[in-house]
Amino acid sequence: MSDSRAGGAGPRVPPLSPDEWGDDEYDAYAALLGMPADKIPRAGSGHRYDPQQFSVVGTMARHPALAKAFWAFNGHQLKHNSLPLRLRELAILRVAHTRQSAYEWGQHVKLALDGGVTSGEIERLARGNTGFAGLDLLVLEATDELLANGRIGDSLWPQFTAALDVHQQMDLIFLVGTYNMLAMAFETWGLVPEPDTALLPERT
């Protein structure tokens, strides 16, 4: 497993410093946390949700209007998605690995472990679909097809619609699309993974 963190160069788009946070930025962050803006932990406070602890938050907040709109949508995917957490995280990890997004991988390994995905399964996922079955395999195969072809193909579609209800089908497609977009943003910005997160395996 190689260390895919950014090298000596810093990020292309650095996160906001504590003194750059203002009302618009806190208002945007409130959309992600689902809290009133005046209750949002201040930058540099050391609170669990201090925005300085998350590079992605400080970077996104450089465009508060975009961040607020996106985080409101992303909040649905994280908190109200109809797919079980395990399936969501398998799909996101496959996106992160396929697109070689070190930041996305590091953040979602932690969430996947919390969602019941084992460390062994995460290692296998980085090598392909061998060892997965049932809904796990179906979600990974659907994710692969969406990333490779921009659609779920005709051969997989009957299994996909038989196993998942309409809300789950739609949530998976939008989940894969969103985290594919985020991977592009993270890698373009040179977002540096947080120091306590898992290293991204190279594609084999």
How is this structure best summarized?
The chain has two domains: 18-79, no CATH class; 85-189, Up-down Bundle (AhpD-like). It is 56% helix and 0% strand.
List keywords for this structure.
disordered N terminus; 2 domains; globular; about 200 residues; 9 helices; AhpD-like; mainly alpha
Question: What is the topology?
Answer:
Blueprint: H1 23-33, H2 55-60, H3 64-79, H4 85-98, H5 102-114, H6 119-125, H7 134-149, H8 157-163, H9 166-189
Helix pairs in contact: 1-3, 4-5, 4-7, 4-9, 7-9
Description of the molecule:
- The structure is a single chain.
- The protein has 204 residues and is mainly alpha-helical.
- The chain has 2 domains: 18-79, no CATH class; 85-189, AhpD-like (Up-down Bundle).
- The protein has 9 helices and no strands.
- The protein has helices spanning 23-33, 55-60, 64-79, 85-98, 102-114, 119-125, 134-149, 157-163, 166-189.
- The model is unreliable at 1-8 (pLDDT under 50).
- How far do the termini sit from each other? 11 Å
Instruction: Tell me the structural class.
Output: mainly alpha
Helices and strands, in order, run as HHHHHHHHH
Low-confidence stretches: 1-8
Biggest sheet statistics:
none
State which percent range the strand residues make up. Answer: under 5%
The tally of strands reads 0
CATH homologous superfamily label of the largest domain: AhpD-like
CATH class of the largest domain: Mainly Alpha
